[in-house]
Amino acid sequence: MSVSTSDPTIGRLIDGRYQVRSRIARGGMATVYLATDLRLERRVAIKIMHGHLADDNQFKQRFIQEARSAARLAHPNVVNVFDQGQDDESAYLVMEYLPGITLRDLLHDYGALTSEQTIDITEAVLAGLSAAHKAGIVHRDLKPENVLLADDGRIKIGDFGLARAASANTATGAALLGTIAYLSPELVTRGVADTRSDVYAVGIMMYEMLTGEQPFKGEQPMQIAYQHANDSVPTPSSANPKVPAELDELVLWATARDPEERPRDARALLEQVQDTEAMLQTALPPAGATAAQKTMVLPGPLGVARDAETQVLGAAAATAVTTRLQPPAPAPTAEVSDSTAALTTVTNKRRRRGWIIALVVVLLAAIAGGTGWWFGFGPGANIPVPAVAKTSVADATATLTAAGLKVAGEQRQVSSLDVPAGQVAGTDPADGTRVPRDSSVTLLVSTGPKLIDLPGLVGLDEKAADAVVASHWTAGGDTVRQFSADAPQGTVIQALGLDAKGGTVDLAGTAQYGEKQPISLVVSAGALPDIAGKSVDDATKLLTDAGLSVGDSTSDYNEDVDKGDVVAIVAPKNDDGSDKAVRVGDTVGLLISDGPPPVTVPDVVGQSWDKAKKALTDAGFKLQYNHSGPADVIPGAFTVSKIDPGAGTSQPKGSTIKVTLDFSG
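The line above is the sequence of non-specific serine/threonine protein kinase; the predicted structure tokens follow.
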């Protein structure tokens, strides 16, 4: 079995689709986990809102706003959002998973970056931010922690949890949100933000990348906020002399205290950064441009040297020269005329033969083309079987039919670890196989994982049960340890698996269970500590040593336990009010004794002593009365004239009642 972890979300199946694998990061509103999308078989990042914020509508709306804001953006420099929903009490957000580091990690490891690195990262951030501003979204929480540097070189901005629609003045609400080191002066002083507030945060990040430190420092957040509101950001070159003056000007422009003096949005700043980059690259000419060049011998104009014996000329020039050097042709004779006529006849025959050959070639080409179309694209073509795995039978049938294939009437059932029951696991012939058009394809429909006989796990020792699970199945998460007075410590008292819909089901009585499917074990932690009659301190120590937390206490009357001592454990409750099974790590309450319950003093005034005495002692009171001697001898001769405390009052059981008796003869 897997080693117990402190995060119960790891291993959990969210909404029947997302299997949580490990934790990536934790923030103020939510925790980000690495998960597997079982439907699409891909790794995703899933952000789950903290449970203690589930009842806070403001935080829940802000969480949903992040999904809506990011979903409106489709840009290579913005983290993609795939899905959003709620599972039980947990609101979640499914995002693109980018293995890599954040800009904060890079700054922590390397300190100041080079000018080229700063410009590259800034351009990527501004490109994504420009898309957000164009869509009318202000990020409001730009900082190095929200700039992701993927292993493959991509740079993206994420965490739109504080994003809102942009307007001339977007208010932040009563609380000042965002990270204080990157807040613009108008956010600090007036609590409003627009696109220029994001530009200010980018300028602060540029300063931090160029110098390795933030421009304003202080022991308290309000000290930093005061500097943002009242001081101008210094030039990066004052902390790092290697920074070019052009980048100094960019940082000062982006971080101007007056928003009117900053770039109007990320697009304006991006264009200036690109111009500055080009200017820095051309400030010094390339080394090759100024290097000494060898003298090149260029060819002179074409001509004929007078003393040259042979010249290579163009065809027209050669013909002209030859014509000038030849003597005049003699007049044609009769023999020459006959030869000319014969030559003309042969030429005409050859011309007709050429047309015939050309026609034959055209016909052959048409036949070849038709044959190629028939076997390449027409009815006689071989086409690949399309991939239809993990789709419904109806969708698979439509895909195959559209590709020019027929679907066999009978389906074949196969087991599959990856494809849910009822979906298509494959085809016969397999996808990618080239078959003649209109061929019949058989659908292989998944029955889910292969069913394997499941031996009884309840009552087994934990190690033996682990071995059984490992033989054909997988551990479904951390082992749960539950207190039980009926099962020895270390023995299995329950085995849990998944049903067809991904819900948890008790495997007791299950004869067969799917191969490689998860099984979670509930193991006995022994009996609960016996704390009846213990003091609160002693009972708390016993429960803490057993792995439990002690919460609120309640009290009630109890005749068997002294007042102030512990009567019993108060277990957590189910929704129907019944007691939950207590497990290691749970929080339990204590029931404290208030002593015996109060008793109402019966009205015995005017009764004879024998009847009054019986009524008072039966009610549980002790008695103190006058005439103790005669009254005990002849009780019928005395009558009760007064009792203290009086009749009808509630008194602790066992308390003393004073009785006044009068002799009645």
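Note on the example: The domain at 598-663 is CATH 3.30.10.20 (Trypsin Inhibitor V; Chain A). The chain is about 30% helix and 25% strand.
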